[in-house]
Write a structure and sequence with these properties.
18 strands, Rossmann fold, 509 residues, globular, alpha/beta
Length: 509
Amino acid sequence: MEAPAPLKHGRVSVNQKLQQLFHPEAVAVIGASATPSKWGFGILHNLIQGQFPGPIYPINLKEKEILGRKAYPSLAETPGPVDLAVIVVPPEKVIPAVLDCGRKGVAAAVIITAGFGEVGAEEMRRQEELSRVIRQTGMAAIGPNCQGVMSAQSRLFAQFLWLFPPAGKISIVSQSGNVGGSLMGRGMAFGIGFSKFVSSGNEAVTKCHELLEYFGEDPETEVVMAYLEGVPEGRAFFRALKRVTPRKPVLILKGGVTEAGSRACASHTGILAGESDLFASACRQAGAVLVDTLDDLFYSAVTFASQPLPRTNRVGIVTWGGGWGVLAADACVREGLCLPALPAEVIAELNEFLPSRWSHNNPVDLAAGGGPGVLSRTLELMVKSPAFDGVVQLGIGISSFLRFMTQSSFFFGHADRAKVRETLLSMAVESDKKFSEKVMRLSRETGKPILSASDTASTPSEDNVVMQTFRQEGKIIYPTPFHAARCLGHLARYARFRQKIKGEKPGQG
């Protein structure tokens, strides 16, 4: 086999090469296709659809033009330099494509093609040869067997997934393309932005710990989400984790924790899942936030990206109804949070405007007493009290409930009562908007996290004024008390870890 040419720009660090991966000036798609059912079409289409600002070069032996872009028979014939090459050719053509990249001086490649180490022994030998060739060229390389990469700030959507999230603070490294896609898709539904996404695939060259290190240094990333099925270089991974977690939260969802899941990992990416208990223990020692489900991973990442860290684990709960308050209290205790009793001065002030039947305890159960103004005053007292460093607020979004009620009610549905119906809804919407803005303002003024949960206002919709207000600051409404308590628990544990790292006395209730 012909020896690969070294990179024309000389030796650079992994982080520098990854910088060109996520911020390229020009991209080539090797194996671009004019057939809509092929991956080579999807990748090229999404680069154009995502409005990548630099040159995009389709590479195809037969086509003269694809999707309105001039096509080139080889990478060598492109008119300018190429920073990133996305390779979408059959397995036997991948190494020749990589050699072409080396001669061209390409800094980074994303190898979409499957059929390597995830298949069998012969294919693993092919992957090992691919790895050797890539290392000789000096390129950074993602994959093989991956979905692609995304960098929202660069308008780079070099992926097969039809997802174009707005720019945000969260970056994702996932050994599964569809898991990463699920997270981004859910984020888009809630108006949550992302910074970067990389589907790392088989990790023949660039490993998950190198991506983690990059995100740790990346000024556009504040929170890192990781879906991992295995860690090929365990010591390097935990060294990287220990360097990143004192500065940024790293949330990890581990796949392959059962025997069946481990077998699935081997056939999915060719990565052995390893000992899950040992992995979890090492991650916790390194300061990572371990989660068990995609729900937990998504809601927790959004929480870290949008909420301040609490000083201690002392939590107050404010609820419209008793049942949710009881469930929230149980969930908070299970998360290691402390629910202090209400200070006497807070009880005295609440007695001035709450009905006598209110709970007189933490959780503060309003017992459906009073209107939104009462809820607002109660929340302010709890948030500003030095007894609490975080608050869970339950029952936001009365307008969502009234909208459902008036639309389905035989009484309010009558044509003669349209004006009454619209007046009720208008008042509820305005009330919800003011209360949502107050939640945002109180959190900013006090530096305390306020997590709001509602089963009516947590669903994305165009007329959900609560969610629209929250999304302006990248926040989210939690669907249940359990989600809110879980996320606040993660915040408190990570805050305690950060305090220990800095040599401060950990805050504890």
